[in-house]
Write a structure and sequence with these properties.
This protein is 62% helix and 0% strand. The protein has five helices and no strands.
Length: 160
């Protein structure tokens, strides 16, 4: 049970670090991952909110979090990298569906960025399918609750 809570904490760190770092640094080092690329039809590949700064902050803080929890650094790196990959995939799909950046798409905003990290570390940490489902659902609920707190703290533009 403890390892599942640790994994959930790392997924929260991976997804939260870019938001907090963006609030602290504002526009400094906010280079879009997609380089501002727009696909035919004029829609952005990922959008301006997906930055290299966010990717790096997720990797750094999640790896540090893993080490502080006594887990190998590679667990932190895998969770951060796969959470950010899930976040990029969500943004890509949202742009194709004409959903504006920072607008919520329930499930699409939470499931890839929690499911992919759990699948990525499954070979290191034995997780059953039931445990993965429970952790993903826990992340969805926590994300929705924490998003409201971040909105009240002015770290998010709108609550989910």
């Amino acid at each position: 049970m403890l390892i599942q809570l640790e994994l959930l904490a790392l997924i929260i760190i991976a997804n939260g670090a870019p938001i907090i770092v963006a609030d602290v640094l504002r526009t400094r080092w906010a280079r879009p991952v997609d380089g501002g690329l727009h696909l035919p039809g004029g829609r952005a590949l990922f959008g301006p909110a997906k930055t290299w700064r966010g990717l790096v902050s997720a990797l750094v803080f999640t790896t540090l979090g893993a080490l502080l929890l006594g887990l190998p650094a590679r667990v932190g790196v895998l969770i951060a990298a796969s959470a950010m990959l899930g976040d990029l995939a969500s943004s890509f799909i949202k742009r194709r569906l004409s959903i504006a950046p920072s607008n919520q798409a329930l499930g699409l905003d939470q499931i890839p960025e929690s499911l992919l990290p759990l699948l990525a570390v499954q070979s290191f940490i034995a997780l059953s399918a039931v445990q993965i489902v429970v952790l993903v659902l826990s992340f969805v609920v926590l994300e929705l609750l924490v998003s409201r707190v971040l909105f009240k703290l002015h770290l998010r533009n709108r609550p989910y």
